[in-house]
Specification:
The chain has 178 residues and is an alpha/beta fold. It contains seven helices and five strands. It has helices at residues 15-29, 66-74, 92-99, 105-111, 130-142, 159-163, 167-176; strands spanning 2-7, 33-38, 78-84, 114-120, 146-153.
Length: 178
């Protein structure tokens, strides 16, 4: 299988990256091809709402880094969304990429991609990830994705905090289980 990880943190080497790398290591160990895209460093502009794409009838009129990201997603079997929690949601950088899915809605839906959610947060309250999980569940439903699991790293505010939790091991196991 071909796995694409959309890594949404502006920090390439932070807690989110740790989960991404462990997930990728597990997926590679299971024999899968993995590509991580650091979307915060990609040249992706926000959706303008022009609707020139017809929500999937035509390509987006913006010609930026999203073209290659969409090509990779449409060639994938698994889509991993990875993000630190910013005010109880995904990062703006990852959201900007997801908003641009609209120009390929039909094609993404037709792929019936498998999906996973990898997320980290500083705090560890039981409700910490509720809003993010609700958004992810809505994306799964809307894009007809097949959820394969999620790793929610509570108390993962720094790389050292993250390494002290079981979240990296769970990410590895999730990758290996694909």
């Amino acid at each position: 299988m071909n796995v694409v990880i959309l890594q949404g943190s502006p920090n390439r080497d932070g807690s989110t990256a740790i989960l991404c790398e462990e997930f990728a290591r597990g997926a590679r160990q299971a024999g899968h091809e993995v590509e991580r895209i650091d979307v915060a460093q990609a040249d992706v502009r926000t959706c303008t709402g022009c609707v020139a794409c017809g929500y999937g009838a035509r390509p987006c009129v913006q010609r930026d880094g999203m073209v290659s990201i969409l090509e990779k997603i449409l060639a994938a079997d698994v889509l991993a969304l990875a993000t630190p929690l910013y005010y109880y949601a995904m990062t703006a950088q990852l959201k900007a990429v997801i908003d641009r899915f609209c120009s390929e809605n039909s094609a993404i839906t037709a792929r019936r991609l498998r999906s996973v959610l990898l997320a980290v947060a500083w705090n560890a309250d039981s409700w910490t990830f509720d809003a993010l999980e609700a958004h992810y569940d809505t994306l799964v439903r809307y894009l007809d994705l097949r959820d394969c699991g999620r790793v929610l790293g509570y108390g993962c505010g720094t790389p050292s905090m993250t390494r002290a939790t079981d979240a990296p091991q769970h990410a590895f196991e999730l990758g290996r289980s694909l």
